[in-house]
Amino acid sequence: KCVSRRPRKCHVNVLTARHLKIRSQRTERASSIHPSCQSVTVEGQLSEDDGCMNAAVRATVRVGLYTGAKVYFVHEGYQGLVDGGDNIRPATWESVSMMLQLGGTVIGSARCKDFRSREGRMQAACNLVELGITNLCVIGGDGSLTGANEFRTEWSGLLADLVRAGKITDEQARKSSHLNIVGMVGSIDNDFCGTDMTIGTDSALHRIIEVVDAITTTAQSHQRTFILEVMGRHCGYLALVTALACGADWVFIPEMPPDEGWENHLCRRLTDQRARGSRLNVIIVAEGAISRDGKPITSDQIKKLVTDRLGFDTRTTILGHVQRGGTPSAFDRILGSRMGVEAVMALLEATPDTPACVVSLSGNQAVRLPLMECVQVTKDVTAAMAQGRFEDAIKLRGKSFENNWNTYKQLAHINPPDVKSNINVAIMNIGAPCAGMNAAVRAAVRMGIIQGHNMLAVHDGFDGLAHGQIEPITWTSVSGWTGKGGSMLGTKRTLPAKMLEEISQNIAKHNIHALVIIGGFEAYVGGLELVQAREKYEEMCIPMVVIPATVSNNVPGSDFSIGADTALNTITSTCDRIKQSAAGTKRRVFIVETMGGYCGYLATMAGLAAGADAAYIFEDKFNIKDLEMNVEHLVEKMKTTVKRGLILRNENCNANYTTDFIFNLYSEEGKGIFDCRKNVLGHMQQGGTPTPFDRNFGTKMGAKSVMWLTEKLKQCYRHGRIFANTPDSACVLGMKKRALTFQPLAELKADTDFEHRIPKTQWWLKIRPIMKILAKYDIKLDTSEHADMEHVLKKRSLLTK
């Protein structure tokens, strides 16, 4: 008998899965019998190999097995579904080991003409019915997902035809009466509406930025203009984010063609940049870029324009398929893993009345959306572009795309006003340095100049503010800062409490009207101390904003901090190398210590991205029995074909169970079975060039902070001076679930554990069970929350009214 694990509403976040099938079996975990859901298959179809599917495949297989289902790979996409035979094979726990670091997809993908015909789909249905498969998970673009929905819609008719043809029995048709489908979007172009990020997009951005950084050095040396063409036939996401992340002078995207006469505008902009002292120009072009009349704008056309009119030494680079390859980023691995979990849960909760859905990402939240609504909105974007409704096309792409475009426009397409505001805004870095700080400073400085403000740089944190290390900072001063790691302004951990008198004097001396504080937990606490000092020092009654920037990701008021993604990728790539070493030597367990203070974010997320067996953190208490269980788990693992182990430990997870203690314990208990090695990663986690995510995140945060300060200054202008003493005049700018929000510092105190320097509530703790399940621990998954079905057509209807 086939049994399906059903109504278990699950929280996990979503977005990935691909060629697999699951037949539910009677197991201890099966909580209910649902006759119409006899098997679950996860099948993925991609017209081309788009990035990083393997994390999704791995998660779907392992969570499927965890729920008591039988999982199948469908190799070569829909072609494998039609051909059947060895293309549809059972998946095991070990079969998805060591795939997280591999790009592409290990189960293959192919274009399939056969599936476009009814005869082909009938053969595919026959293959599924014979194996008892009634649940399908598809990873692909809108074409692949539309095909899956059509397959589901005509399922009953296909079965009837198969019965008439004598290929299946009435009993088989009855048992397979309904097909459930869940889609996950795999596309480096990020061209599917309804999700902020598709699987593979972040990894593609990593490849692009690596090239941009390499090109920038030679361009500066020779004072060249570089034109970089990136993928994006119908969507300009890659081009747009690349332009933000590298501070490009111009970007061409299909959703928003340049205005008439753009040639003159472009040449004027490039000339102005050179006049300001810039030694290079960077122009980003999406391969689908068009003019207002719908004609293609090519990189060769732009090169000829710049060379003929300006005489600049100009080079063109077309990246091509290099963007599709390489090792997946940490973001894509976590995204794929979370989506794979949610996809399985969506399948097992589905009923015959449930529409086909896609699992997608909105901000930091997983959502389920009706598949065909997303496909329709994606088609609406194309229609809007064809009809010249370019503003609508931008909006239909989603809030994330729209915010990126608006930020780019503000930083690159507006000239500083002739009339100054006479407002002085100071910017400072506080706490430990991290990648992405400089991107935030650059964006804040340039946005301030665009608003007509005088921008001041404070060197060496609160020390510099107290000792007068303050100087003007200009547009050209911050050129090229987006790609630089560390802190160009200099930073210290010193708090202001003992220097309030000196700080107030320098605020008055330099006539500072607003303050941007970029940093970690010290920036947050320092901001609180300045707010508390308002009672005594009137000079402190100015608008302030704190931008979280720390590898630890421990600032209250924000789900993410600038710098955490770069550190996470550093840890993940190091763990990849360690696992590769262990795979060669066999029977070896590595203990790796990560940074983060008392916050276990890095250890947990790196554990999920690198496929760790355990991650010890302060927030998730553990004892000697837990350590013993982990050792026994590894002993059992060594009996399988996967003879290696990876254990992560947050640096302050436990005062007594130190890295040395855990290393010695594992070494002693594993004698004769496995040996141990340990690595303390240290400050390498704070260095390096920022990832695309941190550059983009820092840029948007820096720009938004100054826009907020500008509005707040207008509200606080009284009797010819600035006076701000209300709680909402000193805020933390943070990412909360689906939006960037400003939260008063004073209100965040209640949610802060000051002793351990962490927020009292942390969103990522709820996805820790995923890591344990994927490591084959028999634990319960938190089902207190789940991703409800949402709708995307409300936005579409508003635009068409």
Automatic annotation (TrEMBL):
Residues reported in the UniProt entry to bind substrate: 187-189, 224, 231-233, 287, 315, 321-324
Catalytic class of the enzyme: transferase
Subcellular location: Cytoplasm
Catalytic residues of the enzyme: 189 (proton acceptor)
E.C. code: 2.7.1.11
Annotated segments matching region N-terminal catalytic PFK domain 1: 1-413
Cofactor dependency: Mg(2+)
Stretches assigned to the Phosphofructokinase domain: 50-346, 424-708
Keywords of this entry: Acetylation, Allosteric enzyme, ATP-binding, Cytoplasm, Glycolysis, Glycoprotein, Hydroxylation, Kinase, Magnesium, Metal-binding, Nucleotide-binding, Phosphoprotein, Transferase
Entry similarity comment: Belongs to the phosphofructokinase type A (PFKA) family. ATP-dependent PFK group I subfamily. Eukaryotic two domain clade 'E' sub-subfamily. Belongs to the phosphofructokinase type A (PFKA) family. ATP-dependent PFK group I subfamily. Eukaryotic two domain clade "E" sub-subfamily.
Subunit text: Homo- and heterotetramers.
Name the UniProt record assigns to this protein: ATP-dependent 6-phosphofructokinase
Source species of the chain: Amphiprion ocellaris (Clown anemonefish)
